[in-house]
Design goal:
- There is one protein chain.
- It contains 17 helices and 35 strands.
- The chain is an alpha+beta fold.
- A hairpin with a 4-residue loop joins strand 7 and strand 8.
- Helix 9 runs parallel beside helix 11 and helix 15 packs parallel to helix 17.
- It starts with a strand and ends with a strand.
């Protein structure tokens, strides 16, 4: 039974955030180590003959804003296409939708990779005792080795307080630091110049695949060398340093996005960093970083006796061979949090894109872009933020949602003749809202609704009424207005359905045998329409506004179609029981009813939960199943919600071993969705971290469930600092596979919640700021 206890016994010293380490320099992108300050990112290779720091910057976008992206004929063909679909003439409807409904992006653009900053070293002597480390607790990448009898140390980090990357080089013999400093040409067209202290690239984010080669932000990359001792000279576009005791290279990047002056920005940032001095810059960075990372600690159990002494890539290989390593899984959890901190901060200009902050140049040169995908990926980027105590990291996402909603009013009016706002499958740095440019994926009418759920998550966790009133409710009210106007009654049952729309990004076999993607009343649409209407009504009630709107919403919700179970026992993806054109397809958008929504749960809707589970099983068993990083993260959270911890752990392990690389960064596999090779994608890292949290703690605003999906192999452990909806922070400790004790702290006003552990339930009342300890006996 769950019982109140008088005290919380700490499990001991909190487990540190951990570190990734390697016994050799990186030779490719997926071995390099990521650093970031929320806007400026770098991949650190740690070479001994050459240090490479490949740069990325969140606002380095090609393209520009456009208001001419909706098809001019879309609105007039909506009704005819609906009638064709209702009449069962799917092939004709598909043809007309292809011709008239897809978007016509004029200058969509993409985030582009930036060139490398390179340091070339003079010595060619053999290297001994090499170690390359990324300390997740400090956010510092370190390289340490011996060469010519000299111990060389290099620290690299990206500072949010000072807005720069700092590279510090020291040695244990005075006068032994020397290198050349340069910026290498990349895909960004520009001009490089140098002085005795600075190397500067000025250019533009131009490219021809996703824009016309003449649109994009102006940008400047500026490096500044500060040396103690030695001599400096400039030759052509390279700065040479010889005989120094130590040196620091600062890197700043500025762009013209949102009207900024790139040259002014880099000058201000570098001057401030130099004036402060390296020690102050480093101290400010570590304090800022640790203030976020140290909110949560985790221990999932020990590793094999010899594993802790192994480099991270070797431990990952052993995990892939079937050897358990709970410590490595805990490291992966903290790595996902680290990447969130490094990639998305309160003051970030833009949120995490498809590749987070770290652009390998492959997504931006693929048929799909390094943008903001609204049919899973961007949402998944932020799944871990609230529950792992990084709520403020969502702030740049909220600003993009608000921008997208503002622009989506034009799309709602021009394309659908409806009030409110709508966005589809993708958006960009300027809030693009028209459908995507291709049929089969671009016509997702609930993409904007899907991403807007992140606002509600934030409110549920924090309970900020000002946020509810001033930011959340305006977005949801207009989204609800759109759907109330957009929904139409299907002829058989009178259910209100969306359409024409697509279930991202899947196709079905119509009764006439044709392969189609466009339908009326796709299940994913039903999930997000229900969510938007419910949240809008609940928010209006909390704020005591819009009684008439609440009444309209209540009537519409009563008429939404029910979930349906198909002939194979699966959860139907479409309103009718169509066969899938591609049974092994990676997308399971309709399972959004299971996560992030709770419209299907194993306790409240057991038959539908079993149908959802069978859907997963059928996808995996189909020949050619498309395993990707975000699919494995999806299946991890799905099985956690289904309360099946061992199966969740199996998919989490697959994510780490089969869809993440040597540097633990997750990837979309080559051969999927037109990708020629593995392409880094941030969502797997964030989704995996969210999955671990979901296995340990779940909440719905009225109930907090402790250890809902604990795998059998995690026999002993603890976690500190996870957050639950309702304004709670939770610490958990378990022994022999069972809950030992939990401490729940409330940051909200006085109230109550229900604690659940398996079938055990305890109702608990809280005062604001109070901590309650419970034990299981």
């Amino acid at each position: 039974m769950l019982n109140l206890a008088s005290e919380w016994k700490s499990p001991g010293t909190d487990a540190p955030s951990g570190a990734l380490w390697y016994a050799r320099p990186a030779t490719r992108w997926f071995e390099a180590l990521p650093i970031g300050n929320g806007r400026l990112g770098g991949m650190v290779y740690g070479g001994t003959d050459r240090e490479r720091v490949q740069l990325s910057e969140s606002t380095a976008w090609s393209g520009e804003p456009s208001t001419a992206d909706v098809s001019a004929t879309a609105r007039q063909y909506l009704a005819p296409i609906r009638e064709l679909l209702f009449a069962g003439r799917h092939g004709e409807a598909q043809r007309l939708a292809t011709e008239h409904l897809v978007g016509r992006p004029q200058s969509f653009g993409t985030n582009l990779p930036l060139p490398e900053v390179q340091l070339d070293f003079l010595s060619e002597a053999p290297v001994l005792d090499y170690r390359r480390t990324l300390d997740l607790d400090t956010g510092v990448a370190s390289i340490n080795y011996e060469q010519d009898g000299i111990r060389v140390t290099r620290d690299v980090f990206a500072s949010n307080p000072h807005g720069v990357i700092a590279i510090r080089l020291t040695a244990d013999r005075p006068g032994s630091i020397g290198f050349s400093l340069s910026i290498q040409d990349g895909v960004i067209p520009g001009r490089i110049t140098a002085t005795d202290t600075d190397v500067v690239l000025r250019g533009h984010a131009y490219e021809n695949l996703h824009s016309n080669g003449q649109q994009g932000v102006a940008l400047e990359i500026r490096t500044r060398l500060e040396a103690e001792g030695g001599s400096v000279r400039c030759v052509d576009n390279t700065v040479y340093l010889e005989g120094a005791d130590s040196a620091v290279v600062y890197v700043a990047v500025g762009t013209s996005w949102a009207g900024d002056d790139p040259g002014f920005r880099t000058d201000v940032l570098l001057s401030a960093a130099v004036d402060a001095g390296y020690a102050a810059v480093r101290a400010a960075h570590i304090a800022d970083h640790q203030a976020l990372m140290r909110r949560v600690s985790i221990d999932l159990g020990s590793a094999p006796a010899d594993a802790a002494a192994l480099p991270t890539d070797e431990r990952r290989a052993r995990l892939a061979s079937g050897e358990a390593d709970a410590e490595l899984i805990a490291l992966y959890f903290q790595f996902g949090r680290y990447l969130t901190v490094a990639g998305s901060r309160r003051d970030s200009s833009l949120p995490l894109a498809l590749q987070g902050l770290w652009n390998d140049g492959l997504a931006s040169s693929a048929p799909w872009t390094n943008d903001f995908h609204l049919d899973m990926n961007t949402q998944q980027n932020y799944w871990a933020a609230e529950v792992t105590n990084l709520a403020e990291c969502q702030e740049p996402l909220f600003r993009l949602i608000e921008t997208t909603a503002a622009h989506g009013r034009t799309t709602a009016k021009e394309m659908y003749g409806a009030p409110g706002w709508v966005a589809h499958t993708v958006t960009n740095a300027w809030g693009y809202t028209a459908p995507g440019s291709g049929i089969g994926w671009g016509l997702n009418v609930t993409g904007g609704a899907w991403i807007a759920l992140q606002l509600w998550e934030h409110y549920q966790y924090g309970g900020d009424e000002v946020f509810l009133r001033e930011r959340l409710y305006p977005v949801f009210r207009e989204a609800a207005e759109f759907f109330l106007a957009h929904l139409v009654a299907e002829p058989e049952h009178g259910w209100l359905v969306t359409g024409p729309s697509e279930s991202p990004e899947n196709w079905y076999l119509a009764p006439d045998g044709s392969q189609c993607s466009v339908s009326m009343g796709a299940t994913a649409d039903r999930v997000f329409v229900e969510a938007v209407l419910r949240i809008c009504a609940e928010s209006a009630e909390l704020l005591d506004v819009d009684a008439e709107l609440r009444a309209r919403i209540a009537e519409a919700r009563r008429r939404l179609p029910p979930f349906r179970i198909g002939r194979h026992g699966q959860l139907q993806e479409w309103l009718h029981d169509y066969e899938e054109a591609d049974p092994s397809h990676r997308h399971t958008s309709h399972l959004s009813a299971l996560f992030p929504e709770r419209q299907i749960t194993p306790r409240d809707t057991p038959a539908l939960a079993r149908a959802a589970e069978l859907t997963i099983e059928r996808r995996q068993q189909a020949p050619g199943w498309e395993q990707t990083e975000w699919v494995e993260a999806n299946f991890t959270v799905y099985f956690a919600r289904l309360l099946k911890g061992d199966r969740a752990l199996a998919h989490l392990t697959n994510l780490i071993t089969d869809a993440s690389e040597a540097n633990l960064m997750s990837y979309s596999a080559g051969g999927v969705a037109g990708a020629a090779q593995n392409i880094y994608s941030f969502d797997g890292n964030a989704g995996g971290t969210a999955g671990i949290a979901e296995m340990l703690l779940q909440s719905d605003g009225s109930e907090i469930e402790l250890l809902p999906a604990l795998p059998a192999s995690w026999r002993d452990g603890y976690v500190r600092g996870l957050r639950a909806r309702g304004g709670f922070t939770v610490d958990l400790r378990w022994r022999d596979g069972r809950l030992d004790a939990a401490r729940i702290r409330s940051s909200s006003a006085a109230g109550s919640t229900r604690l659940r552990y398996g079938q055990e339930i305890l109702d608990v009342k809280f005062d604001k700021g109070e901590a309650v300890v419970v034990r299981s006996s």
